[in-house]
From TrEMBL:
It comes from Mycolicibacterium grossiae. This is Molybdopterin oxidoreductase. It holds the Pfam family Molydop_binding. One of its GO terms (cellular component) is outer membrane-bounded periplasmic space. Residues 6-46 form the Molybdopterin oxidoreductase N-terminal domain. PANTHER family: TRIMETHYLAMINE-N-OXIDE REDUCTASE, TRIMETHYLAMINE-N-OXIDE REDUCTASE 2.
Length: 761
C-alpha cells in the first residue's frame, strides 16, 4: 500500500496529496463496495471552515468565567498556545478547587475520527480521569434505548451487533428477511473506528439469487435496496404491526411453544396482553390496521409467510431512537422467539442490518490495540441524551433504569470529538442550557456550531495530519494511517494539548508516561502484540506494509450457542433466558415501560392530536451524503443541497397541496423551531411523511437569538428533547411532527461554513 493511504469511519483509501491537502482519493483496492462518502475528503484539510489557531470568546476573556447568553454570538479573540494553556489550566483548577470534579461535564459524546491513539474521546476521558474525574455519560445517541433494554431481556446489547448472524449465513440460509426500518445500504458504509470490507450489497445479491425475499417495512421506498416487498406504515407504529403478526402466530397455531417454554420466560404474561385478556384489547390485525395504515389482510399474509420458512426479523436502530424506543427491539426479539428460529442458521433476530457496517460482519478473534483509560474517580453520570436537562436543572432528579438519579451542578463543559449541535435535540433548548455553565471548552478541527458556542476553542488536527492506526471489532484489517499532510495553520493534536495542560496542572508525567505520540503508537502496538495468542509482525513491518490482516470468527449465527445448550450458555438475564416478561422492569412500576413489550401511542405521530397542528411526520434520519455533520462542506454533501439548503424529500401530493414545487426552498416548522430546506419530490416517500436528514451545520439567522430559524436545514431545531422512557432515557431524535410552507421571502445566506471573526489583540 503506498504511503498516502489512510482510513476513515467509512473506508480506507489512497490519496493524491497536493499543497498540503487531499486532492483526490481512490478507495482501497479490495473494498467490494466503497462508500461514496470518500468523495467528501478532497479539500477538507485546508477548508476555510478549519479552526486556524487557539481562540477565546471575548466576553469570557474580559469578564471571566460565568453563565452567559452571548455564547454563539460573541466575537472571538486569538490567543497564543501558551496563553491558551495557562487560561485553560487555571480555569480547570479553579473549578476543581471551588466546586469539585463532579462539576466538570466530560461526557463529550461524539464520533470524532478513526485512530486508536489519537481518538479524541479516548484522549479527553483519560485526561479528565487523571485530573481527578468528571461527570460522565452512558450509552449513545445511536443505541440509547437498546443499550438499556436489551441487556435486561437478552443479556447483552453488544453481541447483537458484534456477534450477529453473518451475511454469508443469511445469503445461504435465509428465506425471508423481514426488515423493520428497511435495509438501506446508505448506512452500511460506516463503522466506528474504520471499515475496509463492505459485504452487504453482494450478500443481498446472493441472497436474492438463491430465492430469498426481502420485506421492507419503512415509510421510504429506498430504505430497501433492490427488489423487495415494500410496506409503508405510518411512522412510529412498528410495535403495533409486530403485535398483530404475533397475534396471528399465536392464534393460528404458528407460534413455537416449545421454544417459548424452553428458551424464554414470561410468555404467558405477554400472551394475556396480546390476546387482550389483561386490557380488553386483542392485538388483532384489524386493531393494528387502524394504527399503522396497512391492511389487516396484508399483516395476516405476512405472519403466515414468516412461519413458512427460515425467517429473520430485523429491527433497524432508528426504531429505538423514538419515544418508547425500548419496545421495538424487545418486541422484534419476541416475534423472532415465537417463530422459534433463534440460533438456527439464517433464522431468528437481527438488530441493525442496514444501520451500520457491523451486523453481519465477522468479529475479530482478538481485541485491537488500545490506550489504557484508567478509572474515573467520580461516579456521577447521566444518560447521554440528558445533557440539556442536566445543565438546566442542577439538583433535579430523573428516573433511569430502576434508579433515581440527581443532576450535578455543572460549571465546566468539556467537549472533544463531538458536536451537540449535530446530535442533540431541541437546539433552542440546548442553547439556553449551554448558557448556564461558567465555561465551555471545545476541541475541534472545524468551526462547527459547538465550537462557535465555546468560550475556549482549541484547534485540533484532523486524523490525516498525524500518524495513527485504526480498525474496528468487525473488520479484518488494522490499517496504518501515516500523516498525509502537516497540521493546518496552528492546529495541534489533542494529545499535545492535553499533555501541555497536564504538565501545567502537575500530572504531565502520568498523562504522557514520558512518551511522545510516536512512542505511544509503538508502545500500544507492542503491548497488544504481546497479549495476542498468535504472532503478528513487528511494528515497523506493520507500518511498512500499511495494514495487517487479523483472524475473524466467520459464519456466526446469533445465539447459536444458547440454542445448543441453554444451561451452559445461559444468557446474562436474571432467568438466564430471553425475558419476554421482565420481573425487574415490572417492579420499577414505570407507566412508560412495563414488564413486557407493549404498544404505546407516541406523542409525535400522525395518529395523535398534535398532528392536527403539525400534519407532516418528519424523519430525521442519517444522511446519505456524509457521516453526521462531518465534512458538510465536502463535494458529496454540497452536491446534495438545493439552493444551498439541506434537501427535504416529500410526496408530490403533499407538495401540490401546499403550492410547493421541486427545487423550492421551504420553511419547516413546529412550536419548537424552524429551518429552511430545499424540496425534492419523490413518490417513494409515504404521503404525509417528509424526510430531512441530520447533519446540515446549524446556521441561525440571528446568532444572538436562541430561537432563531436555521437557514441551512438542521432538523434538530425541531425535534423534542425527551427521553425514550423512564427506563433508558435514550435519544428520540428520529421523529418529529412539522408543517412545511413555501418560503416566499428573500433567501438568507448560508454562513455555516464561513469562519467567525477572530480578532487579533
Ligand atoms: N434528530 C436526530 N439527531 C441525531 C440522530 C438522528 O437520527 N436524528 N442520530 C444520532 C446519532 S445515531 C449519532 S451517533 C449522533 C452523532 O453525533 P456526533 O458524533 O457528535 O456528530 P459528528 O458530526 O460525527 O461529530 C464529531 C465531531 O468531531 C470532530 N472531530 C473529528 N476528528 C476529531 C479529532 O481528532 N479531534 C477533535 N477534537 N474533534 C474531531 C468533527 O469535526 C465533528 O465536528 O447524532 C445523533 N443525533
Ligand atoms: N451515510 C451514513 N450512514 C450512517 C450514518 C451517517 O451519518 N451517514 N450514521 C451511522 C450511525 S452513527 C448510526 S447510529 C446508524 C443509524 O442507523 P439507523 O438509526 O437505522 O438509521 P436511520 O437512517 O436514522 O434510519 C433508517 C431508516 O429507518 C426508517 N424509519 C424511520 N422511522 C421509522 C419508523 O417509525 N418505522 C419504520 N418502519 N421505519 C422507520 C427511515 O426511513 C430511515 O431511513 O447509521 C450509521 N450509518
Ligand atoms: Mo449513531
Amino acid at each position: 500500500m503506498p504511503r498516502s493511504a489512510s482510513l476513515t469511519h467509512w473506508g480506507a483509501f489512497t490519496a493524491d496529496v497536493r499543497d498540503g491537502d487531499i486532492a483526490a482519493v481512490s478507495p482501497m483496492a479490495g473494498d467490494a463496495d466503497p462508500s461514496p462518502l470518500l468523495g467528501n475528503l478532497p479539500g477538507s484539510l485546508r477548508h476555510r471552515s478549519r479552526v486556524t489557531g487557539p481562540a477565546v470568546r471575548r466576553g469570557w476573556l474580559e469578564s471571566g468565567p460565568g453563565p452567559s447568553t452571548r455564547r454563539g454570538a460573541d466575537e472571538f479573540v486569538a490567543v497564543s498556545w501558551d496563553e491558551l494553556t495557562e487560561l485553560l489550566a487555571d480555569e480547570l483548577q479553579r473549578v476543581v478547587d471551588e466546586h469539585g470534579n463532579e462539576a466538570i461535564y466530560g461526557g463529550s459524546y461524539g464520533w470524532a475520527s478513526a485512530g486508536r491513539f489519537h481518538h479524541a474521546q479516548s484522549q479527553v476521558h483519560r485526561f479528565l480521569k487523571l485530573l481527578g474525574g468528571y461527570t460522565s455519560s452512558r450509552h449513545s445517541y445511536s443505541l440509547g434505548a437498546t443499550g438499556v433494554i436489551m441487556p435486561r431481556v437478552v443479556g447483552t446489547h453488544d453481541d447483537l451487533f458484534k456477534r450477529s448472524t453473518d451475511w454469508n449465513v443469511i445469503a445461504e440460509h435465509t428465506d425471508l428477511l423481514v426488515c423493520f426500518g428497511g435495509l438501506g445500504l446508505k448506512n452500511t458504509g460506516i463503522n466506528h473506528g474504520g471499515t475496509t470490507a463492505h459485504p452487504a450489497r453482494d450478500a443481498l445479491r446472493r441472497f436474492r439469487r438463491r430465492g430469498g425475499r426481502l420485506v421492507s417495512i419503512s415509510p421510504l421506498r429506498d430504505d430497501a435496496h433492490g427488489e423487495s416487498d415494500w410496506l409503508a406504515p405510518v411512522p412510529g407504529t412498528d410495535v403495533a404491526i409486530m403485535l398483530a403478526l404475533a397475534y396471528v402466530l399465536a392464534t393460528e397455531g404458528l407460534a413455537d411453544r416449545d421454544f417459548l417454554g424452553r428458551y424464554c420466560t414470561g410468555w404467558e404474561r405477554f400472551e394475556a396482553y396480546l390476546l387482550g385478556v389483561t386490557d380488553a384489547t386483542p392485538k388483532t390485525p384489524r386493531w393494528a390496521e387502524d394504527i399503522c395504515g396497512l391492511p389487516a389482510e396484508q399483516l395476516v399474509a405476512l405472519a403466515r409467510r414468516m412461519a413458512a420458512g427460515r425467517t429473520i426479523v430485523t429491527v433497524s436502530w432508528s426504531l429505538q431512537r423514538v419515544r418508547h424506543g425500548e419496545q421495538a427491539p424487545w418486541m422484534g426479539l419476541t416475534l423472532a422467539a415465537m417463530l422459534g428460529q433463534i440460533g438456527l442458521p439464517g433464522g431468528g433476530f437481527g438488530h441493525g442490518y442496514g444501520s451500520m457496517n457491523e451486523p453481519g460482519l465477522p468479529p475479530l478473534r482478538c481485541r485491537l490495540p488500545y490506550l489504557p483509560q484508567g478509572v474515573n474517580p467520580v461516579s456521577t453520570f447521566i444518560p447521554v441524551a440528558a445533557v440539556s436537562d442536566m445543565l438546566l436543572h442542577p439538583g433535579g432528579t430523573h428516573h433511569y433504569d430502576g434508579r433515581r438519579l440527581t443532576y450535578p451542578d455543572i460549571r465546566l463543559v468539556y467537549w472533544a470529538g463531538g458536536n451537540p449541535f449535530h446530535h442533540h435535540q431541541d437546539i433552542p433548548r440546548l442553547r439556553r442550557a449551554l448558557g448556564r455553565p461558567d465555561t465551555v471548552v471545545v476541541h475541534e478541527p472545524y468551526w462547527t456550531a459547538m465550537a462557535r458556542h465555546a468560550d475556549v476553542v482549541v484547534p485540533s488536527t484532523t486524523s490525516f495530519e498525524r500518524d495513527d492506526y485504526s480498525g474496528s471489532r468487525n473488520d479484518p484489517l488494522l490499517v496504518a494511517m501515516p500523516a498525509l499532510a502537516a497540521p493546518h495553520a496552528d492546529a495541534r493534536d489533542d494529545y499535545a494539548t492535553f499533555a501541555a495542560l497536564a504538565h501545567r496542572l502537575g500530572f504531565g508525567e502520568q498523562f504522557t508516561e514520558g512518551r511522545t505520540a510516536a512512542q505511544w503508537l509503538r508502545h500500544l502496538y507492542d503491548t497488544w502484540s504481546r497479549e495476542l495468542e498468535f504472532a503478528v509482525p513487528s511494528f515497523d513491518e506493520f507500518w511498512a506494509a500499511g495494514s495487517l490482516r487479523l483472524p475473524t470468527e466467520d459464519g456466526l449465527t446469533l445465539l447459536a450457542d444458547f440454542r445448543a445448550d441453554p444451561v451452559a450458555h445461559r444468557l446474562g438475564t436474571p432467568s438466564g433466558r430471553i425475558e419476554i416478561f421482565s420481573a425487574d422492569i415490572d417492579t420499577f412500576g414505570y407507566h412508560d415501560c412495563v414488564g413486557h413489550p407493549a404498544w404505546f401511542a407516541p406523542q409525535e405521530w400522525l395518529g395523535g392530536p398534535r398532528a392536527q397542528r403539525f400534519p407532516l411526520h418528519l424523519l430525521a434520519n442519517q444522511p446519505a451524503s456524509r457521516l453526521h455533520g462531518q465534512l458538510d462542506g465536502g463535494a458529496v454533501s454540497q452536491a446534495s443541497k438545493i439552493q444551498g439548503r439541506e434537501p427535504i424529500r416529500m410526496h408530490p401530493d403533499d407538495a401540490t397541496a401546499r403550492g410547493i414545487a421541486a427545487g423550492d426552498v421551504v420553511r419547516v416548522f413546529n412550536d419548537r423551531g424552524a429551518c429552511l430546506a430545499g424540496v425534492v419530490l419523490d413518490d417513494g416517500v409515504r404521503p404525509r411523511v417528509v424526510q430531512l436528514s441530520t447533519g446540515a451545520w446549524y446556521d441561525p439567522e440571528d446568532p444572538a437569538d436562541p430561537d432563531a430559524m436555521c437557514v441551512h436545514g438542521n432538523p434538530n431545531v425541531l425535534t423534542a428533547d425527551v427521553g425514550t422512557s423512564s427506563l433508558a432515557q435514550g435519544c428520540t431524535g428520529a421523529h418529529v411532527l412539522v408543517e412545511v410552507e413555501r418560503w416566499g421571502g428573500a433567501l438568507p445566506p448560508v454562513r455555516a461554513l464561513e469562519p467567525p471573526v477572530v480578532a487579533r489583540r
